[in-house]
Amino acid sequence: MIQQFPVLVVVAPLVAAPITLLIRNRRLTHLWAMAVAWFTLFVSANLLHEVLTTGPISYQLGGWAPPWGIEYRVDTVNAFVMVIVAMIASVVIPAMPTRIRLDLAPERMYLFYTATLLFIAGLMGITVTGDAFNVFVFLEITSLASYTLIGLGAGRRAPLAAFSYLVMGTIGGTFVLIGIGLMYQMTGSLNMADLAVLLPGVQHTRTIMVAFAFITTGVSIKLGVFPLHQWLPKAYTYAPDLVSALMSATATKVIFYLLVRMIFTVFGATFVFGVLHLDWLLLPLSLIGMFVASLAAIYQTNIKRLLAYSSIAQIGYMTLGLSMVSVAGLTGSLVHLFNHALMKAGLFMVVASIFYRLATHEIADMRGLGRRMPLTFAAWVVGGLSMIGVPGTVGFISKWYLVLAAIEKGWIGIALLIVLSSLLALVYVWRVIDVAYFQSPPEGQADRIEAPPILLIPTWILVGATVFFGINTTWTVGVAEAAARQLLGVMP
Amino acid sequence: MAFLGLWNYWVVIVLMMIGLYIVIARDNFIKKLMGLNLFQVSVIMFYVSMGKVNGGTAPILPESDMVEEVAAHNQPVTAGHLSDTRAFAHHHEAHHGGHEVVAEGHEGIVYSNNLTHVLMLTAIVVGVATTAAGLALVARIHEGYGTAEEDEIYKIDLTGAL
């Protein structure tokens, strides 16, 4: 059974999605989607354990040996990312029957679960596959599912946001396809491990440089790296609230993983940073992204848009750690994948709870809510502290490693900039706290309207995890560091 | 002459740029989708032309191999079938200008690379799905705004409430 696990993480949600269409019943499909998500979590946790104890696993689809057949390859890096995706899905899917800001008739909820399962299947596929063309296929499965999910948001702006994401996403995906084609032309291979061996022989050619440019740009569009981020705030703002929680915590993480995989495994760090000097471009863009997006977040009146801009800033931290090209920097990036997934999903769950009660996303409407929804807002405070990077929360851990990596490189200025940008996070988190706790509620609206347990429990699982993993860091940092060493080819 | 030798790439690039230009410059969402389609199709043509080998044929085993195989297995063959295959082999030989390709089996035959063609089957499906999803979204946008022109929607969003 365990030999089949690498393919099961993809096949389980992929097969479960059409079955959902057959079940149709609202409650049953929800239980079904939940069961599939938990099963995926079980399988990916097992895979991570297996990889940590016995080393990378290679799975040959249909028994065709690589590089001819499609290979699924699990190592520490992607097992870690799979656990993140499955974990967030397992926590967010249980809250989905609340149907917050979802423009879909209750009796057609099964379509929503189908799209969610396809979305997860695509993400798992991108993560687990060791075949470059397979990456493109799963990338498009994920994207198509997310266009659908975003388009289901209430209000006429949701399909508009989904459409502009569709245009950008398709261009990004097609760029990746062009890059893969150019690589195939030069090497005759699509297997990532095989490409890693063959590419150094032809890496000086213009074709490979162009391939690299297309792949990095394409992936960066889908990731929302600073100047290519325009689709992201719209998509996150108008999507159904729980879809925003799911997407911000999983899709960006998997696509960042894809960038890491392409740079470090396929093209190799020596080529990307030694010959092409991607860091000269990525480092300033990351820093600008961190500041511009954080500043933009401060001026938002819509709480979801605020969180969306904050996400762009956080993507900046991840690419910053990547462009440092050191074990410490990459550890910071990878641990931030995990940490940011927890806190951003938690904060979007808080937003969903507020909308469930008040039907608003405007910060101005949240006056005095701290007293009316104490548990929900306590979750915002804890998640917000983590976003700022206060010690005792996960946010501190990732920033600590990024600052350490910067100091290790002798870049004191960049270390200071990381700290300074955290202060901007303080401002935008505080704006909501200020309105909720230090302004009195509108006249005649002082009753307690706490969110229902179906929302409160997942929120607190996520927020609780940010504190738990903020204090107990050995597991997350240990795995992230092992993954970083593996990527950089440094033996422990 | 190297410029003309790479004509397939020029076709691809021109198509791709037309597609991209339509996506950027047109306000109508349906036209944007058409541009996007053109953009995707250009990449499909890029892949398909990539797999073509000069003088290469479709990757199908020549039938003469099958005749040899049948003979080796000493199985009875109907006369009609045999004459058909012989005719095919003769034709095949003539086509290759008297080369002893057929006699040698498939060793000497140059095949085009069909892998890139197979890959494009998937890409075509992706393109169809993207167009379908895009059209569905445009239909919903039109329901909400009463128009599918980007500039008009922009004006409505600036003046009107949600």
Q: Estimate the global geometry of chain B from the Cα principal axes.
A: elongated
From the alpha carbons, calculate the radius of gyration of chain A and give it in angstroms.
Answer: 21 Å
Tally of domains of chain B: 1
Give a short account of the largest sheet of chain B.
Answer: none
Computed structural class of chain A: mainly alpha
Span between termini of chain A = 31 Å
Largest β-sheet summary of chain A: 2 strands, antiparallel
Main-sheet strand order of chain A equals 1-2
The percentage helix of chain B is: 55-70%
User: Which chains have the largest interface?
Assistant: A-B, 26 and 31 residues
Count the helices of chain B. How many?
Answer: 7
* Number of extended strands of chain A: 2
Report the count of strand segments of chain B.
0
Oligomer, anyone? heterodimer
Q: What is the overall number of helices of chain A?
A: 20
Provide the β-strand percentage band of chain A: under 5%
- Global shape of chain A: globular
Order of helices and strands of chain B: HHHHHHH
Question: Which descriptors apply to this entry?
Answer:
heterodimer; A: about 500 residues; mainly alpha; 2 strands; B: mainly alpha; elongated
